[in-house]
Write a structure and sequence with these properties.
Helices cover about 40% and strands about 10% of the residues. Strands 1-2 form a two-stranded antiparallel ribbon. It has about 100 residues and is mostly helical. It has three helices and two strands. It has a domain of about 70 residues. The N and C termini lie far apart (about 50 Å).
Length: about 100
Amino acid sequence: MPEATSIYTSKKSWSRRPPGTPATPQKRWAELNRDKLKAQAIVRRAIRSGKLRRGRCEICNSLMVDGHHDSYAEPLAVRWLCRRHHQQLHAAARAAGTRFI
């Protein structure tokens, strides 16, 4: 009897992009930031399962929040910030020459 194979074991045989086309900026970012993508996926899963709940913005108390990781080594240690304050935090870090790890 032949061994059952999964559709996920082989590389896909089709693509919307012609072969040899350079990777998109999003694809390049994803390849360079696997730790960030993994942390984001863990947070999404925890929110869906109820293990983690979105909070309010730490600064302005807004309900429309993004999750911010100070360290991707601790994916469930999330700070909740509205988009404006999240962008300001990253701009201040860039200006100081620091990077979140």
